[in-house]
């Protein structure tokens, strides 16, 4: 919630459902059972089960994409690339995981990873639009594997879809845990971020159409369009339901 301290008016600014799993303190690779909770009403339990099934489907879709690779782009020559293409705005960030990024058990806080992912997605959106941009939503962010202290993580983002007023950016986090236990790079986190373009006055601006060049980019664009239409329909249904209450 945000509050105008002059008028006292309040409004909802962010809303999300976060999913956690309990791990053993003695063996962090062991997932424990969650103690049941007492629901205030049956509808509350049914709504929770519905959200649970929806996030399972979202996670399944994202896991199926874990074979995808975004090659890190640190110092690309953007002058040789055509504006509004995937390769033009594609961006990467490399981060060494330090103690301040981690929990007491030495694994990265989810919020730290999400912040880095949002930064990369924001850079992609800004390079595509050349305007002010803001995060509109984050869909199906999945932590596939834990990231240990001392790892080097590469956060890479690419534009997948644009509508008239929004753009979808896919972000991957790949980890290289080379300090304590050398192993091959692995996919740790993945998500889709939706951004909108704003004027200096904070009003929505049209988003330049994404120019797809390869068959994979065209495929990802159509998949993004499907997610966009599905999300739009879901929000319209929620608005109608809220209006009836």
TrEMBL record:
Cellular component GO terms, alphabetical: cytosol
Composition bias, Low complexity: 236-245
Transmembrane segments: none
UniProt keyword terms in alphabetical order: Hydrolase, Serine esterase
Span list, region Disordered: 214-245
GO MF entries: carboxylic ester hydrolase activity; long-chain fatty acyl-CoA hydrolase activity
Domain HotDog ACOT-type: 87-201
Top-rank taxon: Eukaryota
The keyword Hydrolase is annotated on this UniProt entry: yes
GO biological process terms, semicolon-separated: acyl-CoA metabolic process; fatty acid catabolic process
InterPro entries for this protein: Cytosol_ACT, HOTDOG_ACOT, HotDog_dom_sf, Thioestr_dom
Basic and acidic residues composition bias: residue spans: 216-226
Protein name: Acyl-CoA thioesterase 7
Species whose genome carries this gene: Buteo japonicus
